[in-house]
Amino acid sequence: MNDEQLKTCRELAKKVRIHCLKMVHKGKSGHIGSMLSMADILPVLYTQILNTAPASPKKPDRDRFILSKGHGGAALLATLAELGFFPLSWLDEYYCDNGKLSGHISHHIPGVEFSTGSLGHGLPVACGMAMAAKQAGKKHRIFCLVSDGDLDEGSSWEAVMLAAQHHWDNLVMLVDYNRLQALGKSRDIIDLESLKEKLEIFNWAVREADGHDQNAIFEVLRDLPLCNGKPSAVIFHTVKGKGVSFMENNYKWHYGGLTDELLAKAIKEVEAAK
Ligand SMILES: [Mg+2]
After folding, report:
1. 90 C-alpha vs ligand 1 centroid, how far in Å?
2. Which long-range contacts (CB under 8 A, 24 or more apart) does 200-205 make?
3. pLDDT tens digits, residue range 111-120?
4. Ligand 1 centroid vs 205 CA: distance in angstroms?
5. What distance in angstroms lies between residue 240's CA and the mean position of ligand 1's atoms?
6. Taking every pair of C-alpha atoms in the chain, what is the biggest distance, in angstroms?
7. Any idea which fold 3-272 has?
8. Distance 61 CA to ligand 1 centre (A)
9. pLDDT for res 274
């Protein structure tokens, strides 16, 4: 990325974090730690990698992005709103009674491909989209962002096997690998290590990158597929709650609300970040 593109990504990440904090504060709840964890990945994906168009969110040749960890969907909603898929004012109605935006993401919202939030649903659907594209001879790609918790689900591993079996190299799995999930450390719940070796054994092409270094995110996503004839996986090493000191690496902020005081403290930290 050039300096201008990097600046755009950094500013968008900052805006996404602040939107998420305000949305969770106003909605009185939400998966804030999960949102902040992926807040540096989505801006790079949407401004530099995906072939999408806010004015025509259903254009047939668009790249598809499925957020499997749809419980943290406010980060995606904030990204889409900032890019013009729908009005920013909708964010004020997140998680509110009769509001436009639900706590888990819905495909009724422009730019959202699939309703998710229950774990393990995203990758199987992404497989179906990859198969459909291959069968129709289409060139668009299918991206699916999964969490540690997603990878505890058998449905995700069925999808991993299916994609490799059929050589769907138009499929890209992005892992938000913060090593925490709702109730604690992943290694104490279902240990995914060594995730890279596991996926390679399953015949995926795999890379790892720092999920908060936007240049590194761009570098690894620039040249897809990672290997012709194989599905690609990028394991992004991330920090749950990234950007807010009292939330970072603390699974107790997987889900929760924010007092006025904590909101002010969190926004101050995000705004001050370099
Ligand atoms: Mg996690």
Report:
1. 27
2. 202/157, 202/160, 202/161, 202/164, 203/164, 203/230, 204/160, 204/163, 204/164, 204/173, 204/230, 204/231, 204/232, 204/233, 205/230, 205/231, 205/232, 205/233
3. 999 999 899 9
4. 22
5. 7
6. 54
7. Rossmann fold (3.40.50)
8. 31
9. 80
